[in-house]
Amino acid sequence: MDDGGSDLTDRFKYKVHALMGTYDLPEGKVDDENQTGNILGAMLNFPTEYTFTVVGKKAETEDPCDNYERRVRAVVESALGEAANIEMRVTPRGKRFTKVSLKVTVESAAIIAAIYEELGELDATVMKF
Fold this sequence. Notes:
Blueprint: H1 8-20, H2 38-43, E1 48-57, H3 68-80, E2 87-93, E3 97-106, H4 109-121, E4 125-128
Antiparallel strand pairs: 1-3, 1-4, 2-3
Helix pairs in contact: 3-4
């Protein structure tokens, strides 16, 4: 079937691998709704580059120390270390919101989950993906 070059073959490969058990967790590991990072851990080869993207409310004050971008960067640096190579892109989203994307190298799915959890704890964060 000629589907015009879509990613049908990739989707098919993921499905076949899933049916073969490639993405199954090792024996004894818990896999329920309370776990995070299991899917990422199965699909990515670590270390890998990963982009965190969050959207947050802009500060109502003009205090440069209280800006959302700095707090987001600080969260990622605290998890990966200040020596981490971080590519950060800031995009204003209207007058009230800011989108921050950070491209970094991560060592495990657990680190990704921990960073997302900390980013979610920032008061100004409204979305993370």
